[in-house]
Amino acid sequence: MPAPRTVLLTGAAGGLGTLMRGLLPAYGYELRLFDVAPVQGEPDAITADLGDREALRAAVRGVDAIIHLAGISLEASFDKILRANIEGTYNLYEAAREEGVRRVVFASSNHVIGYTPPPAPGDVLIPIGITRRPDTFYGLSKSFGEDLAQLYWDRHGIETVSVRIGSCFARPSSVRMLSVWMSPGDGARLFHAALTAEGVGHTVVHGSSDNTRLWWDLSTARSLGYEPQDDSESYAAELIAEHGELDPDNPEHAHVGGHFVTDPPIWPR
Ligand code: NAI
Ligand code: 15L
Question: Which residues are catalytic?
């Protein structure tokens, strides 16, 4: 596969999309931007909903690869998740198939395995193949996205790297994030590896920095060529002084999904 150059970035107006708009061009990518919200300072960005199949098809036409970040990024009602994350991701893969795009990087989430307990210090890290235990309709939609990616690889030969992102923000803001944080710089390194690694088929990876308190195994991500450079530990003293250590008897702390596990479900539909 020739190295991709033109990349469609969906969700370009969001937090992660904004970080990646700043970082990915340094790797030589030309980004085409897509979001239902206007992208500030980017008059050429495509403003459309993932439900608009014609707009999506035009958006993917001619790109070498897609980084799919668009969607609802937190828990929401099932109907909203269904439209944006489940149908929206299906629409994206259909557009990729129709237009011959061969590589997708899918923003999956740690909430696919949110009910998993964190490993105790010294225990084996959580492997990528652990049974999925979504903690929300949101996590369930990311699990669907991973299965959709597998189907489009097996049936249509579209390759995907599904990145189960921990927390990708400028800096960690909770003690939990000391374990799951992915620095923006490491996020860009991982997306670049996911765009360029050869023969990925459908590969699922955990997405984090090389944190001292890491909960999951990054070896699958490393096998793509990802070499994380950052560690959240430099924020540990400050965050622990403010919030205290995680308490394994607190249900929010006893699962990797954190408050997603304990927040009340969002009803009605
Ligand atoms: P965000 O909520 O800031 O950005 C999501 C973007 O998607 C928004 O700009 C929104 O307008 C757009 N969007 C939502 N529904 C849409 C639709 N129907 N059509 C077109 N655009 C739509 O979220 P963030 O933090 O930037 O996350 C980006 C992606 O990465 C999301 O898919 C999220 O689930 C995933 N992710 C992010 C993590 C993080 O730490 N930031 C962790 C795990 C996963
Ligand atoms: C996610 O999947 C969310 O999109 C993000 O906003 C964070 O909440 C992150 O997970 C997390 O678990 O910290």
Answer: 138
d(CA 258, CA 261): 6
Q: Which domains does the chain have, with CATH numbers?
A: 6-261 (3.40.50.720)
Pick the atom of ligand 1 nearest to 84's CA.
18
Residue 243, pLDDT above cutoff 90:
yes
H or E element at residue 30: strand 30-35
Per-residue pLDDT for 231 more than 90? yes
**Residue 103, phi-psi category: left (phi > 0), alpha (psi -120 to 50), beta (remainder):** beta
Beta bridge partners, 161, equal 105, 203
Residue 209 beta carbon below 6 angstroms from any ligand 1 atom: no
pLDDT of residue 268: 75
Sheet arrangement for strand 46-47: 46-47, 30-35, 6-10, 65-68, 103-109, 159-165, 202-207
Q: Using most ligand atoms within 8 A of CB, pick from 69, 136, 163, 167 the residue to mutate for ligand 2.
A: 167
* C-alpha 49 to ligand 1 mean position (Å): 13
Token pair in block for residue 221: 């991500």
For residue 110 and ligand 2, the question of a CB distance below 6 A is answered with yes
Average pLDDT, the chain: 97
10 Å CB burial of residue 252 (0-12, 13-18, 19+) is middle
pLDDT higher than 90, residue 181:
yes
